[in-house]
Amino acid sequence: MDANQENNRAAWLEGPAAKCSPIPNRSGPAWRLVLLGPPGVGKGTQAALLSRHLGVCHLSTGDLFRAARNRSETDSTPAMAAALDVMRRGHLVPDEIVWDMVNERVGCLRCPGGFVLDGFPRTLGQAESLKLLLEQEGLPLHAVVNYVLPVAEIVSRLSGRRTCEKCKSIFHVTAQPPRAEGICDQCGGRLYQREDDRPDSITIRLEAYERSTAPLIQFYRSLGLLTPVLATGSPQKIFQRALTELEARRAAELSDVDLSTTGRRIPKA
């Protein structure tokens, strides 16, 4: 897939029977990345930037859940139908169903264009299952980008966020204020602060994230895949930091191999 061309991710959003358009086509090595980071660091924005620049598919579990809400159970894969049933009852989708949704889309992980996984894995169990699956498929994971940000800045980012009650557009009281206070620029709807964007709720969310993610971070650190990136500044600056780290990793990988006379890469002695 061309570095600036995005496909419609049909196989990811609809299920393995669907076909993506355009079909990714890559002559060079693909990137396979996982993104980690607490609420408020902008993983979705960074995933989109990396996806466009590296020419890989953005595989977001959040997008997968949104797609599930727009489909009927009769028009869904088994795992997506199970997730839809859980969401309709107002519960969080359990880990095992999330894993089933990813596992039945293994074709997206095999894609020669590569991928950026956003929102998965969330637990150590999911990370171990993903590692086993990729090993069985012969697909190396190249890096796990962990976006880090001071707690005070996370609270500031999230507590200042305002959402339109009609079109769901997002604003920020200081970083991206609407033209008229409390009114959406897009549709004129009322802006409100989501319950989970209040400071006390944010603190609880961050504590829960730290509990679930600390083992995950240690797991990927032990595999030599963890790549910390400071998530301060503009989205473009954060993206450039991540890109610099990834390019350094790729250069280090290539420096560890020599080309044999057949053109195949072999480990240096």
Notable features of this structure?
269 residues, alpha/beta, Rossmann fold, 2 domains, five-stranded parallel beta sheet, three-stranded antiparallel beta sheet, 10 helices, 10 strands, globular, disordered C terminus
Report on this model:
The structure is a single chain. The protein is an alpha/beta fold and 269 residues long. The chain has two domains: 195 residues, Rossmann fold; 48 residues, no CATH class. The strands form three sheets. Strands 2-3-1-4-8 form a five-stranded parallel sheet, with helices on both faces. Strands 6-5-7 form a three-stranded antiparallel sheet. Strands 9-10 form a two-stranded antiparallel ribbon. A hairpin with a 5-residue loop joins strand 9 and strand 10. Helix 2 crosses helix 10, helix 3 packs across helix 4 and helix 8 crosses helix 9. It is globular, with a radius of gyration of 20 Å.
CATH third-level topology of the largest domain: Rossmann fold
Task: Report the end-to-end length measured between terminal Cα atoms.
Answer: 35 Å
In total, the number of strands is 10
| Share of helix, binned | 40-55%
% residues in beta strands: 5-15%
- How would you spell out the order of helices and strands? HEHEHHHHEHEHEEEHEHEE
Counting DSSP H or I runs of 4 or more residues, the number of helices is: 10
Structure summarized in a few sentences:
The chain is an alpha/beta fold and 269 residues long. It has 2 domains: 10-148 and 212-267, P-loop containing nucleotide triphosphate hydrolases (Rossmann fold); 150-197, no CATH class. The protein is built from 10 helices and 10 strands.
